[in-house]
Amino acid sequence: MARRNKIYEGKAKIIYEGTEPGTIIQYFKDDATAFNAEKKDVFEGKGVLNNRLSEYFMTGLAAIGVPTHFIKRMNMREQLCRSCEIIPLEVIVRNYAAGSFTKRLGIEEGTQLPRPIVEYCYKDDSLGDPLVSEEHIAAFGWASQVEMDDILSLALRVNDFLSGVMYGAGIRVVDFKIEIGRVFEGDYARLVVADEISPDSCRLWDIETGRKLDKDVFRRDLGSLTDAYTEVARRLGVMPNSATPIKPTVIN
Predict the structure, then answer these.
(1) CA distance 190 to 65
(2) What is the rounded average pLDDT of the residues 181-193?
(3) Which residue of 10, 107, 165, 245 sits 20 to 30 Å from the alpha carbon of 59, by its own alpha carbon?
(4) Model-level pTM?
(5) Which of left, alpha, beta for 106 (phi over 0: left; psi -120 to 50: alpha)?
(6) Residues 58-102: pLDDT tens digits?
(7) Residue 34: per-residue pLDDT
(8) SS3 category, 188
(9) Torsion angle in degrees (nearest 10) through CA of 9, 14, 17, 23
(10) What domains are there in the chain, each with its CATH number?
(11) What does residue 225 show for φ and ψ, rounded to 5 degrees?
């Protein structure tokens, strides 16, 4: 495929102009970063795994009526997506205490929360993606109140889906982050789950052993990141070159 104009290059992906108007191409890199890009490395095959896993999750969400920007996977590293206006927020859903949450509130890592907690961070790497409240979001016009209601609903639906699918694979969804975009249809803007859903954006622990199967492997020097992501893909049946990938199980 002829290389198209590059729109943006981030820490884990490159965004190119799409094959049709209103589309983009996401290229998944092998790069890994942590601690606001202070720690960096390259893991061969990571981008391939994240491409396949994000396709799996986005397709499963669409099947239960959760709108996403995903259209199709084009090859081992690229997927075609709808172009959308990204709301400048990271939407974080937490089921168990981990990461910065434990440090801020002094709660022991692994503690199950009484209910899923949704938090918002302002997307700005230079500021370290600071935690913000709905008051900040309203005051600065990042999203309307109607949009915030929809964002919360989308985040909790994604959580229900991911938790059910992963539980079936013996994996606990500790927390995850998603991005939300606006897709414009005339004068109407529809919210969709955008960017990616992969072990890069989730905390995933083996239910039996507590083994980490996400980017904390890299953050904490716990072994091979590719091996951890491969284990997630293997359990879900979406290993590259798998002859019979397993379809997402929808939990009613």
Answers:
(1) 13
(2) 93
(3) 10
(4) 0.91
(5) left
(6) 999 999 999 999 999 999 999 999 999 999 999 999 999 999 999
(7) 87
(8) strand
(9) -120
(10) 85-224 (3.30.470.20)
(11) -65, -40
Q: How does 68-106 read in b/e, with b if 16+ C-beta sit within 10 Å?
A: bbbbebbeebbbbbbbbeebbbbbbbbbbbbeebeeeee
Dist CA 140 CA 157 (whole Å): 26
Burial letters 149-163, b for 16+ CB under 10 A, else e? eebeebbeebbebbb
Tell me how far apart the alpha carbons of residues 119 and 17 are, in angstroms, rounded to a whole number: 31
Asked whether residue 133 carries a pLDDT value surpassing 80, the answer given is yes
SS3 content of the chain, % helix, strand, coil (to 5): 30, 35, 40
User: Region 19-30: what's the mean pLDDT?
Assistant: 95
Phi first, then psi: what are they for 207, rounded to 5°?
-65, -40
